[in-house]
Inverse folding.
């Protein structure tokens, strides 16, 4: 078992002051050149959260598609991503934010997937209890802000603005809050049966100011998978507050010039 305090201290010692730090935790994955990118959103969001990244990918000549994750059960969420992957016409980079790292981990075994990108995302092993893994790290503040209406969950406005989108202008964060898609409790009980990162080149963007997933948990998962890792001084929503850095990581995963 990795000693978390030792692991965290070692990472902190090498941190730089710049907004983005590239960490050579493992050999840089070699990616197949791809022109397709499929993006999957997590909890408290919808497919439009990738808009800033999509615009940049399209400007670079890539075909980008954002999956509308149903947020119902893990099998249904994986199936929604697989249907989009089926439509791709060649090597495809599969990208997931937050909870959808579960989907990337499971659906990433699809033959069209050439590389995986995790953006402040869950990255469980096959059959692993992610909740149990997360409990080995301090609980992030956003967890206390989840509210339920029966089996339907969402993030409170205060938690959304402070703990989910803390580095976005308040006006923009409130718009994102207004369009957040509720999730079903059953979604949180799912476990992956595959770990695509064990066989596919993997890339990870850690959000150093994350209050939704513990940044040290993100670092642990990135190191475990041997991912090419960058650190972004951002909230959980680095894909919106730092879309340029996230796009460059995706382009690298696609074997394209950033």
């Amino acid at each position: 078992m990795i000693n978390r305090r030792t692991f965290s201290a070692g990472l902190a010692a090498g941190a730089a002051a710049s907004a983005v730090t590239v960490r050579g935790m493992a050999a840089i994955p070699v990616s197949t050149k791809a022109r397709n990118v499929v993006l999957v959103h997590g909890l408290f969001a919808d497919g439009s959260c990738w808009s800033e990244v999509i615009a940049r990918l399209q400007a670079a000549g890539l075909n980008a598609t954002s999956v509308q994750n149903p947020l119902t059960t893990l099998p249904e969420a994986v199936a929604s991503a697989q249907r989009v992957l089926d439509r791709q016409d060649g090597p495809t980079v599969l990208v997931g934010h937050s909870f959808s790292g579960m989907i990337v981990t499971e659906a990433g075994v699809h033959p069209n997937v050439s590389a995986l990108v995790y953006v402040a995302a869950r990255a469980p092993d096959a059959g692993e209890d992610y909740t149990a893994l997360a409990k080995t790290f301090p609980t992030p503040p956003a967890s206390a802000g989840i509210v339920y209406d029966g089996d339907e969950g969402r993030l409170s406005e205060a938690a959304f603005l402070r703990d989910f989108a803390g580095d976005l202008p308040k006006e923009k964060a409130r718009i994102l809050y207004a369009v957040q898609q509720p999730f079903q409790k059953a979604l949180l009980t799912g476990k992956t049966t595959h770990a695509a990162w064990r066989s596919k080149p993997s890339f990870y963007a850690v959000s150093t100011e994350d209050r939704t997933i513990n940044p040290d948990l993100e670092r642990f998962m990135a190191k475990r998978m041997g991912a090419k890792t960058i650190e972004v001084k951002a909230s959980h929503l680095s894909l919106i507050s730092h879309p340029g850095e996230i796009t460059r990581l995706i382009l690298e995963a696609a074997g394209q010039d950033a």
About this structure: The radius of gyration is 17 Å.
